[in-house]
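Morning F.,

Quick status update on the modeling queue. The single chain you submitted on Monday has been processed. Sequence for confirmation:
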Amino acid sequence: MTRRLLLHSGSVLDVSSGEVRAADVVLVDDRIVDIGTGLDGDGGIDCSGGLLLPGLIDCHTHVCTAETRRDPFGLPRSVRPLSAVPVLRTLLSLGVTTVRDAWGADAGVRLAVEKGWIDGPEVLVSLRQVGTTGAIGDLWSPRTGPIDFFDDPSMPDPIFNGADGARTVVRRMVRAGADWIKVTATGSMAIGTGVHDLQLTFDELSALVDEARRRGDRRVMVHAHGARAIELAARAGAASVEHGTYLDEAAAGAMAEAGTWLVPTLSVSQSDPESVPDGAAEAHRESMRIAIDAGVQIAMGTDNPVRPHTEVLWELKHLAAAGLGDAGALRAATIDAARLLRLDDDRGEIAVGKRGDLVLLAGTDLDCASLEHRIRKVFCNGRQVR
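Structure tokens below.
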């Protein structure tokens, strides 16, 4: 007999409108089957004084690099996927029920969660950050030549040149199980070089986008800090721009026109402004203002472990402070993130038929300043997280 789990006497956030209302929620298996007042069930969880949110979505994280970024030379290869186990458990305990890994996780990490071998959010993988010769994914030293910390059949060669090479690298990634294609169009703020460079051509990026579409209607996410690379990504049809630190009006206009999403990863510059180049924290906030004014769609992503994964929810307070407000930040981390990932028919809001991904907060206000301290319970796929 199917069991109806009743979450009763609480409040529910409508993430699309930002409105909070009193309601019960009934889960059957992995689905929400009823929302209303005075509902019944076979077992009940008291949610009084609390607020139910949809499960949160991090559209830009790295679940396998927390250890290897500290010591890329001294650790065995197996550390990379195994280090994801505590990271995924941490994210799930903080209410994150879906993640898009922006490179580092192979298809086996996704499979391990699907099979229930490890606890964690659902994982969408991009495998490697592809790029042209000299891009940040082209690991090379003047002393040793090529250095590939990810040399593994499950993590294919990410380097390409030219439009034909772009198509070939997409095919390699898809063959190895990539859900998304991640490409770098500028240098790295973490490394401190090339953030305003334009490291690939329009033809190369257009070929990536077209080949990804032809291969199972996959889409492309573009690492870009500088405005001209951001504009190029939008004009080439990329689904999302990651970071967008030095966005300007022309780039924002191109994104809005093309429907390209911004995943600003504000944690990189706002959690510890002293750790980034001079002016970067201020520029990042200004980019958010420009994007919001232009009507660019925004989804939540952290870029952790640039900051510890335990700080994942800090991104929401940064989004709120940068212009979205608390309701807007919660929307960016739920229904809007689901729309970017094209999962909004399945999750991202508390609605009948959607997946039973829920977070119960203490208190009914939307204040994002200290969400990590308010979590009472988490449900993923209709089951309460341990």
